[in-house]
Fold this sequence. Notes:
2 copies of one chain form a homodimer. The first copy, chain A, is α+β, with helices and mostly antiparallel strands. The first copy, chain A, is about 15% helix and about 30% strand. Chain A contains 3 helices and 8 strands. The first copy, chain A, has a 4-stranded mixed β-sheet, covered by helices on one side. A two-stranded antiparallel sheet of chain A has the order 3-4. In chain A, a hairpin with a 6-residue loop joins β5 and β6 (about 100-105). The longest helix of chain A is centred in the N-terminal third of the chain and has 10 residues, at about 10-20. Chain A is globular, with a radius of gyration of 16 Å. The model of chain A is unreliable at about 1-10 (pLDDT under 50). Chains A and B meet through α1, β1, β2, β5 and β7 of A and α1, β1, β2, β5 and β7 of B.
Amino acid sequence: xxxxxxxxxxxxxxxxxxxxxxxxxxxxxxxxxxxxxxxxxxxxxxxxxxxxxxxxxxxxxxxxxxxxxxxxxxxxxxxxxxxxxxxxxxxxxxxxxxxxxxxxxxxxxxxxxxxxxxxxxxxxxxxxxxxxxxxxxxxxxx
Amino acid sequence: xxxxxxxxxxxxxxxxxxxxxxxxxxxxxxxxxxxxxxxxxxxxxxxxxxxxxxxxxxxxxxxxxxxxxxxxxxxxxxxxxxxxxxxxxxxxxxxxxxxxxxxxxxxxxxxxxxxxxxxxxxxxxxxxxxxxxxxxxxxxxx
Lengths: 142, 142
């Protein structure tokens, strides 16, 4: 990973470099990040970041995760167009979880739903509590 | 872990046993759980559950996590009195994260703040965006 030099960093990037040292990363160098729509409070998804994806997020002000399955940066919305603009980054008391206040374009979920948390446990099992906004086939054309 | 027998389970417990098989647990047998105040939308905290703590949560309808540091069940509020009543349990699209809709008594954070996410990144570093509701010395008397 090539980090921007301190001399040429903008203030948000410098703050990002500073925060790297205050976070607790797991054994794989990752930290969980919860994305919440900044104005409605909807919890949209949870994914993971490494240092590089966090710096990329702060640089671009668009949320970039680390894809554990693909082992590469995951610029949210790069394929689907459903981007997450970063509104504010918060950290928890022990510095091992991020809360991203975002402005989500359309659905956050690959199923086309606004939120990935679209199933709730009822007495007789899981129930779908929201429907797709967009057919997922339109989000990820072949 | 002693699981309740199917024959004597209530409906929520049976649904809980069923859900165990639909979740993706990490290598340590844990799953991250995000707690959100059900009516205001505040994201309060993120912690971890194992199978036993999830079943205990469903049985008691009060949130019980797994403490990774103490390696034991962590019945939220057992010491401080600041309990989390479970309102609804949601799971995400790939079944590897829980979203708990809760009714939190007082502060969720051990610092006495309502939410653990009380620091936001600004251009010049982290800023505290909320103050303690209660002196933490009163939450955890010696």
